[in-house]
């Protein structure tokens, strides 16, 4: 037995979606996390809540709204159609956008926690040395909060790999485009191709275990050195 | 309180029904409950999923499949008590757009659309029938890059209804009400173009001593149930012969 071509296509597709999602999330999530960590604004609560929503909402809620919003009559769909991109449902980039929303808290929260754990002091020191905001971000915040960024990247990637409900609702199960591992496993189980389901499912269990072991081990070592933060 | 006394004999059943039958089954259950006092819990989904679940001990007493194969296989493995054809499904090509489909297959030949939805052929008999139609028209290879697959016929309908797919193969029952098209445009697909969608019901072994389940199978064959089924665009076995 082993992996069929369709299984390999699903694995490769999932890897591509998760990688792009992770990169986008680090770019989008970092400023949000910075703001949330430093602000005293009364909007901190609501914005933090919006970021955390995917943690508590059923994926079907997100999937349902995305299906409507990205459709030809929805707000996102009308913008993308006006831009000549067509609608995003059933497309690779549609899934990437869905994944970015869905995995947002897994990236923003570790970065936010790491920056909050730093306190104000390092940046105050940097300011007295006349470091600008960009300078102090790259020379002070980023190196000191690095474990938070690494945890964020790993969790964002892993969580995107594990996505199912949203993909099922806006993906349309297209081989090589939207048929990711979780959907492929579902198809195998429903058609009672259990040995193929075992191969993919077992791979997922091992992958997830390794990822979480890395995250926890990494954070424990950090704590010992005194610069860590709790996951 | 009164109704509790009145329904002292009432029993409960769990029914699994293929999603194409969502419209009629809800009315049938309401009527059945009113007439018999029994209670029926309904679960809708893909026949393939129910088949796998029943094989693994899912607590259903009645299974209304979208095909004959699955009930027959359950019966062959000793899991069924009785079985009959409760409806013959009609496949339709449907669009939410009022002018896209001109009552024929032209739109498929022209291919002037972005996405066409069908139920997953591996899981749903209506998906398999849709593939039959495209093969009969010689269009399967050309159109397959435009396929989006619903997990079952309900999701397929939802893709088309929301406009995310321009058109799609759905069950006639999903788009008609009392024999009239509810919205959009349609091609009523001739039945010669696909293998017949005979839908069988099976009374499962777990219903052995369940009066409600046995009563339900009887009710499903009754005139009032058949009227409801026909209203949703299905054919019935005797009508066909």
Describe the secondary-structure layout.
The complex is a heterodimer of chains A (231) and B (241).
Chain A: H1 5-38, H2 44-56, H3 59-70, H4 75-82, H5 92-118, H6 121-128, H7 133-144, H8 146-161, H9 165-170, H10 181-190, H11 194-224
Helix pairs in contact in A: 1-5, 1-8, 2-5, 5-8, 6-7, 8-11, 10-11
Chain B: H1 2-6, E1 12-18, H2 22-36, E2 39-45, H3 47-55, E3 62-64, H4 69-76, E4 80-89, E5 91-95, H5 106-110, E6 116-119, H6 125-136, H7 140-143, E7 147-150, H8 153-161, E8 167-171, H9 172-175, E9 176-177, E10 180-181, E11 185-188, E12 197-204, H10 211-220, H11 223-231, H12 237-240
Parallel strand pairs in B: 1-2, 1-3, 6-7, 6-8
Antiparallel strand pairs in B: 3-12, 4-12, 5-8, 5-11, 9-10
Summarize the model shown.
The complex is a heterodimer of chains A (231) and B (241). Chain A has 231 residues and is mostly helical.
Structure overview:
The complex is a heterodimer of chains A (231) and B (241). By secondary structure, chain A is mainly α. Chain A has one domain (5-224): MetI-like (MetI-like fold, Orthogonal Bundle). In chain A, 77% of the residues lie in helices and 0% in strands. Chain A contains eleven helices and no strands. Chain A has helices at 5-38, 44-56, 59-70, 75-82, 92-118, 121-128, 133-144, 146-161, 165-170, 181-190, 194-224. Chain A is globular. Chain B has twelve helices and twelve strands. Chain B has a five-stranded mixed sheet, with helices on both faces. Chain B has a five-stranded mixed sheet with strand order 7-6-8-5-11. A two-stranded antiparallel sheet of chain B has the order 9-10. In chain B, helix 2 (22-36) links the parallel strand 1 (12-18) and strand 2. Classes of the chains: A mainly alpha (231), B alpha/beta (241).
